[in-house]
Design goal:
Arc Repressor Mutant, subunit A; D-Maltodextrin-Binding Protein, domain 2; five-stranded mixed sheet; three-stranded antiparallel sheet
Length: 311
Amino acid sequence: MKEFDLNLARVFVLLYETGSVTVTADALRVTQPTVSYSLGRLRRHFDDQLFRRTGRGLVPTATAQRMYEPLHRAVGEIDGVLSQAGGFDPARTPARFSIALSDLGEVTLLPRLVAAAREAAPTVSFTVRPLDVDDVERQLARGEVDAFVATPVMTSHRTVRIPLFRERYVAMVEQDHPRVGPGAVALERLGEERHAIVVGPSGHAAPRELLAQHDLLDRVAVEVSRFSALPYLLESTDLVAILPEYVAEVFAASHRLRTVPLPFETEPMEVAAYARHEASRTPAQRWLVSFLVDVLGEQVSPAQLPVAPSS
């Protein structure tokens, strides 16, 4: 049996997950020629090309696809042992994480993350980038973001999806809406009202799809690009908007708005965190993923939100 350098396993796993020599070199803090040399050694050792260059990066061969799981598992186990000896201490180690969130996430999830971090990880800080579902997986692969939170289901082999919570949809109207009462709004009434919807790059298309399913798109009066515009729009008009229930509760807590049950069943929205595979994360990124799950994995009412301590 030919000897195998375990460092090559890490190179292989990163190449597989990032599809990029450049990103792999950055992650390993080595030069691109070093990674290219390691890839050559891998190809000779396994007598296979392993990765083919395309316009979208490196694409694994069938042999590479078979190799990935066992090598990924081996690298993860080794990293697990090493991280126990030199792990990330969020209470003492300064770190700045880059997270991609929709504006909906910035309004409803970010306050919880920041407040929890002030308590459990006072030396940790965050940079929030706008979520673009068409580009965010590339950003994650290139190390431009450490994680992102989204509702669309993404199935790239380069990312791991960690479900956080599910919730249903409700309608939201101005507190003293003249025609929509406090009970469940009738479908006929919903069809007579004018609606506001959000159309943007975050991929949250369910409200529009629900209106389309019930032939109500012609009742849309306003399309906005950000969810954060909705509470101001709704409280000064008689428009109706369909929102995830928790988001609606957050808006109602600070605006003259109220929620109304919908007259039809809806598929619950599932919010998930996305990150690199375990073997490709730094100890700090592993902590971040656990932190996201711990803080966001259990929904609370707006009244229960933690208050960040004053500076």
